[in-house]
Amino acid sequence: MSLPVFLAVMLAALLHASWNAMIKLGASKLAGMVILTLVQGGLGLAVALTRPWPAAEVWPWIAGSALCHATYNTFLAMAYDHGDLSRVYPIARGAAPMAVLVASGLFLSDAIEPLSVRGVLVLGLGILGMARGALGSGESRRLIPYALGAAAGTAGYTLVDGLGARVSGDPVAYVGWLFVASMLLFVPMGFAMRGRGLLRVSARVWGQGTLAALASYGAYAIAVWAMTLAPIALVSALRETSILFAVLIGWAAFGDRMDRTKAVSAALIVSGVALTRL
User: Fold this and answer.
1) pTM of the full structure
2) Segment 123-171, tens digit of pLDDT
């Protein structure tokens, strides 16, 4: 991996942690996620309309992925209502690749290498450490199931998108229509949960949601670009440094409590993810 690509992937990791921080910072986490989804949907539509129309067999994959994204968005917003960025993000981000790897081995007949098995074990230790730290520090216990729910949504759309993009043959159009479908599904869900006043929020919340959407889209675009120039496994592993960025942002910007258990658990999660993807 060349130095420019390395620096670009590190920027993508920082952007991913940063958009989560912007959602956490907002007064209404659900409103922030809805705004993010609206902006991404508009960007996705602008991109998708420049591409050929997807074949009929692609739409079920897009619909399934949109459902997984809606699940992820909902649980992530709820998790940030109850927990710190430096606690929620590592659990949500770290449990997803573990679930994907196990599901791939069980249902997709993918061979799981010994190094990946070790990675799953290290990941599990890190996630257990994070959860135990939450229980022992007086934080809300609800953050744990909500963060794991967000991880389940991430694992779901990772598996669906991996297969759906292959069926599509046009990943750019697939992702664009996916963001549109996610918007059409998640925005009504948000209004159903919070009512008509959901988006009656300050200009600051609108700005945070919009910036989060741009950061999220930028992080994804950089990652896809990097995977065309460097080994996919190496790029994927390096992106997980976003967990460390999130822990540092939570500690430095939000005043999240930092102790040895949280620091060690975050390091274990990053190491475990790296082992599963190298």
Assistant:
1) 0.84
2) 778 888 877 777 777 778 888 899 999 988 888 887 788 788 888 888 8
